[in-house]
Automatic annotation (TrEMBL):
Residues 185-221, 234-291 are annotated as: Disordered. This is Electron transport complex, RnfABCDGE type, B subunit. It comes from Caballeronia humi. The keyword Iron-sulfur applies. Pfam families: Fer4_21, FeS.
Amino acid sequence: MPASGSHDRRCRPPQAVNVTATAPKTLADRIEDLLPQTQCTKCGYPACRPYAEAIAAGDASYNQCPPGGFEGVARIARLVGKPVIALNPENGVERPRPLAVIDENVCIGCTLCMQACPVDAIVGAAKQMHTIIPELCTGCDLCVPPCPVDCIAMIPVTGELTGWDAWSQEQADAARNRHDQRMARLAKEREAAEARAAARQAASSAAEAPEAPAPVADDAEAKKRAIIQAALERARKKKEELAKAGAAPKNTERVSAEVQAQIDAAEERRRRLGLQSDAAPAKPAHNDSDH
Ligand code: SF4
Ligand code: SF4
Ligand code: SF4
């Protein structure tokens, strides 16, 4: 007799295997993995990723990243099967890694450095002193030019060590994550701003739009009133013609209470329909009920 466990295995449907498919890395992905991720733009591109894409596409040389230095050039050269060449001096020099330091006595709290920092390494608020978190600073220099009071200094902190000797893979990975998070946050903020602008535009267009046509029900009501008004007008003209011909009714001066009630009811109906009478209902001076 089979063990209960084997019976269970035969009767149960096969378990789904949880396999996460990962797309194979492109050449740009693999080049990006080799870059130091300071996001400094010294390569001539707005961040490390676009530079990696440019190298992969053959649009840029692999010797334009000063923070990676000579070792960085050699890493990419090995990947793409090309010779190791010198760093292009037009992009900068390999140097000990610096950290940004704010002179907090001079800072005016303008926030311009925060906006320039590619890895959100600066904390502060408008009109308040700003501070740099040293562990997060990549030494990219990007906060220096926007400072209107020139209170940010770049201080070398790695002694004689330069390039990849002054920057670990863990630091590069952390900087890459922070940059990705920043880009995602900025994209969200942009989307929200665009949505607000679109809502404002829609509201102002609605305010300027011509008045919407009256609802169908109102149209039908207006048509009905126009028909009745035209009928009353015809009746009035007919009455005038009859009066001119001496054939007008002779009993309008003294009407019975019953007839007066009918006149009042008709006037009330006209009033309810919003129709205008030729004149105020002619109340007889007196009627039969006076007697
Ligand atoms: S570290 Fe700077 S120079 Fe190097 S690839 Fe990144 S952005 Fe370009
Ligand atoms: S604090 Fe300045 S130097 Fe440091 S990462 Fe931010 S922008 Fe670059
Ligand atoms: S740019 Fe300069 S003044 Fe403005 S907040 Fe940054 S450090 Fe302070």
